[in-house]
Amino acid sequence: MTTPQTASPLKVLFSREQIASRVVELGAQITKDYAGESVVLVGVLKGACLFLSDLARNIALDASFDFIAVSSYGSGKMSSGDVKLTKDVDTSLQGKNVIVVEDILDTGYTLTYLTKLLQAAQPKSLKIAALLDMPSRRLQPIQADYFGFKIPDEFVVGYGMDFAEQYRNLPDICILQEPGH
Ligand code: IMP
Ligand code: MG
Questions:
Q1: Is the pTM for the entire model greater than 0.90?
Q2: In whole angstroms, what is the distance from residue 139 CA to residue 78 CA?
Q3: How many domains does the chain divide into?
Q4: Which residues line ligand 1 (CB under 6 A)?
Q5: Which ligand gives the minimal distance to the CA of 143?
Q6: Parent domain of 143
Q7: What element of type H or E holds 15?
């Protein structure tokens, strides 16, 4: 599948090649940091599913997967700040090395909510891996332990990320431009 280039609201921000090589680096870093240990990757549905599947294949450790889902955006572009759990993990995280795998750290409301929730499960350790970090939009004091790319204040889609459930299967990360821009 190719990313539409002309007469399109989409502008490529990170190509599939750039994403792939950065994900290799993140996997190597995680492999080194947790040497001799096992990890549980907790993916935040749905946006992080492609990142989790690529990252996992670059982590040379015993790794298991779990998934959690929240809602906060509805179908718009702005976070409501009112995060709701729509699917909990279904394995015990007690005593485990948990890495929350998220597509984008934006206002920080979602990961602030999720880290509190996951901390209550008494993991051995809890870290955040976010593919994208948008520090200028942050409204909560939270940082990623691992991030792929820092990006400016733009709305992005592709590689798992959506606007109103569209564009998740684009292989590149694209800026979704407003009509007329
Ligand atoms: P936060 O709670 O504002 O940090 O937002 C986190 C969630 O909002 C992410 O899991 C994304 O699913 C979604 N989100 C935030 N910014 C964008 C964006 O630019 N494009 C697509 N989804 C986004
Ligand atoms: Mg999300």
A1: yes
A2: 12
A3: 1
A4: 44, 47, 72-73, 79, 102-110, 155-157, 161
A5: 1
A6: 16-153
A7: none
